[in-house]
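re the bet — no i am not wrong, look at it urself. input seq straight from the record:
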Amino acid sequence: MASEDVKTSESAVSTIVNLAEEAKLAREGVKAPSYAILSICKSLVAGGVAGGLSRTAVAPLERLKILLQVQNPHSIEYNGTVQGLKYIWRTEGFRGLFKGNGTNCARIVPNSAVKFFSYEQASKGILYLYQQQTGNEDAQLTPLLRLGAGACAGIIAMSATYPMDMVRDRLTVQTDSSPYQYRGMFHALSTVLRQEGPRALHKGWLPSVIGVIPYVGLNFAVYESLKDWLIKNKQFGFAEDSELSVTTRLACGAAAGTVGQTVAYPLDVIRRRMEMVGWKDAASVVTGDGRNKAPLEYTGMIDAFRKTVRHEGFGALYKGLVPNSVKVVPSIAIAFVTYEVVKDILGVEIRISD
């Protein structure tokens, strides 16, 4: 027993010493493997919480936006933001406002986690290459380089979670009048896979990736550049001790979201419509003859653009823009601020702008 106690004591001392060494390494800027892994996990958790919270806060507007994007122009049910929300409430009740949000969170949590983490890693890599190229070790990321890092993060996150995004949109569009009902995310995934094949899970991927480059890229670039500018221009009184208030960061996030979504919105409409192709039992989606049967068939992204403009006019590329604008401003703002706040709570020293 004595020898076991001695071994236990030695083990405890060894553990304390190891923890102390890791803490020392962390303070000195040298990350031990376990510390680095823990930091990565914390960063991923912060990104996931930010995504889930921000998307749930605007779930009713998210659903209405998608319904407006894909509804049949000859059978209008959702006509504007307020009327659309009232119609959903009247026909489907409170739960109808959040239909598809569970699947959306199941998608957005890993998507947001990967996106924020990928942005941090891409920023570090691009900054290192930029410093090597210029020979200036004190060089900082320019807005253009931040745009590139954001684009990389958006492509990685979108590609990693796209099948979940595709079935989320179908669950969101599904109404009580839909002839066939998906029972949930996994049922939708298995049904699409069985009835339409593996490629169906990636319908609309190309316009999504093309759209995510300016959208996510501009989100990060505008947000980070605005923060840096406000901190450097202290005469405006927004920064105290190189820190911005939560309100100011929310405003920066709102500006970033507005710029990004305005540029990328037409591609978002096209990818939603391409995701509906092949869904024979959809209700209230775009058709060629005005009747509620199968959606228009698109051979690709260019064909979808051409048919949308020909049948409905150029304005169709901006259907749902109003609820999306109302949604995206608080959504992006909440996501950025939540990410930084959660990282502060978890004790992660590095922020997305470091």
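see?? The chain is about 70% helix and 0% strand. told u. also The radius of gyration is 24 Å. so pay up
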